């Protein structure tokens, strides 16, 4: 068994960041646990999930012998980690973050960091008052293709951005975790999945000026809002658009594309096979063929080397490394709760235009 004491020695000496994880589902298993275990200055000291089998699955897969808990209170009281990494369902994030901060932990929170900007600001104030570091997880900013888009903007390769159009067609929500199936609770299409792409728009274009258009489509037979079209005007004069569909009866293929149109060049991004094209003028057919060959070859090489699974989650590795550097005082972290408020404000405005989510929020407010 790989104990966390051995993990400390493997990290090259010094006192490591002692990390506890609450929520041992897919995102913890596939992304957060491997990322923390890869970090030379971190040690996993506790796992927590109300379903014990979830914690045991992670422990068995990674050879861990750290304590496992069914309640967050027990973890905080007994293991006392330096950092609590929250990977639980989104509707639990605010209360779990508050408890961890009150217990003196730095906190890293999976998306959504909070269900609205007001709650995020409240938690940010609590963290500041206690001298603790509170970070959000918007890992799409750390994907290779998004980083290349951001670099193209910052270096002036596209000139001034005019429009960013994002299209995503994916499977229906019932292929995801069961806790997401209750739309009124999870607000899945906006706060649990669309949040990735809205954050990409804000990351590339900055704070928004106004919400121009929102078209939600609810499939009554599924009991879910499955389609969402959003158009946003940004303060820099650019226009952002997201068209997301999570319903296999309304499209025949799965894909994600990001098209950035600029005054000097356009950038065309395809999620898989990964492709980034910077185009000004007419496309050369030979160059297009070569780019397609290179795109497919890159996937083949990763499969042959056995690195495809790790590379698929490289964005979480980069993000957690950046957060750890913040904890260690080596660098600032770009995804503090204060820094992601522009994304949360835009999401809150979109939510108010989706009837099911608006009704759920009104019901929750009346109960409180």
Structure, explained:
It is built from 14 helices and 13 strands. The chain is of the alpha/beta class and 368 residues long. It folds into 2 domains: 4-136, NAD(P)-binding Rossmann-like Domain (Rossmann fold, 3-Layer(aba) Sandwich); 141-281 and 336-361, Dihydrodipicolinate Reductase, domain 2, CATH 3.30.360. It has a 7-stranded mixed sheet. Helix 3 (52-62) links the parallel strand 2 and strand 3 (68-69). Helix 5 runs parallel beside helix 6 (117-129) and helix 9 (188-205) crosses helix 13 (341-351). The longest helix is centred in the last third of the chain and has 21 residues, at 285-305. The radius of gyration is 21 Å and the shape is globular. The termini are far apart. The relative contact order is 0.13.
Query: Span from first to last CA?
Result: 47 Å
Number of strands: 13
The appropriate CATH architecture of the largest domain is 2-Layer Sandwich
**Adjacency order of strands in the biggest sheet:** 8-9-10-7-11-12-13
Shape category? globular
Question: What is the residue-averaged pLDDT?
Answer: 91
Could you state the CATH homologous superfamily of the largest domain?
Dihydrodipicolinate Reductase, domain 2
Taking all Cα atoms into account, the compactness measure Rg is 21 Å
Structural class call reads alpha/beta
Strand content: 15-25%
In short:
The chain has helices spanning 4-10, 26-38, 52-62, 72-78, 93-102, 117-129, 144-154, 183-186, 188-205, 285-305, 308-312, 314-327, 341-351, 355-367; strands at 17-22, 42-48, 68-69, 83-86, 106-109, 134-136, 161-170, 208-219, 224-234, 239-246, 255-262, 266-270, 275-279. A hairpin with a 3-residue loop joins β11 (255-262) and β12. It has a seven-stranded mixed beta sheet. A six-stranded parallel beta sheet has the order 3-2-1-4-5-6, with helices on both faces.
